[in-house]
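Here is one chain, start to finish.
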Amino acid sequence: MADRPEVDILLATWNPGLLATSDPGSYLRQQLESIVSQTADSWRLIVRDDASTEGTPATLRDFARQNPGKVKVLEDGGCRVGPVGGFPPCWRSRRRRM
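Its structure:
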């Protein structure tokens, strides 16, 4: 049997404050549930939150607790760098393989 490929999923979250919904965190929960529902099980999520204020940190902590060893939440003291600045820390934290 061949080795299963390891997949790192990089996710940078931010709260632009423009979502016209009572629960913008529901979109994040849907995205996380989609990751878990995939048939591949050799995934790891690396996520950086950009100091969101709508519940994203709690959602990510809950997801990490429900999926031990699969989720790495990057914490940087609430520094807001926007979506473009959020991905480089995720990229540096990925598994390196050649």
